Amino acid sequence: MTAGAATLPRAARLSGKAQFDRVFAAGHRRGSRYFRLVVADNGLDHPRLGMAVSRRIDRRAVVRNRLRRQVREAFRLHWRDLPAIDVVVTARPEAAHAPRAEVWADLLALWKAQVR
Q1: Which region, left, alpha or beta, applies to residue 20 given φ > 0 means left and ψ of -120 to 50 means alpha?
Q2: Taking a C-beta distance cutoff of 8 angstroms, is the pair 12, 48 a contact?
């Protein structure tokens, strides 16, 4: 395996305010215990991920970054199974102090719900 082969490609990430605004305007909302998703078709041949983890979740950057890493890793492992959608994941405050296994299970359930 070459360096970077296990990372999420840049093409699979939402970047820029315009892309986020389009998803928020046209997307369907879904919720779970620890996260909210806004999902919109993207017209591409692959899904893309955007994240919004604000300071309201926890004032410590360490906690917010841990949540971002967990979301990114769960998406990376399942993005090839997802349809051509743009997904913006917003963390709920409960996710900041939840056990890692529960957060992971919640994310996996969200990705499986998108495959249907």
Answers
A1: alpha
A2: yes
Is residue 108 domain-resident? yes
User: Residue 38 phi/psi, 5° resolution?
Assistant: -120, 120
Which residue type, as a one-letter code, is found at position 60?
A: R
**From CA 79, how far away is CA 8, in angstroms rounded?**
9
pTM, to two decimals: 0.85
Q: In the chain, which ranges are continuous DSSP H helix? A: 17-26, 61-78, 100-115
Amino acid residing at 47: P
Tell me what percent of the residues of the chain surpass a pLDDT of 90. Answer: 46
Q: What CATH number should be reported for the domain holding residue 45?
A: 3.30.230.10
Structural domain total, the chain: 1
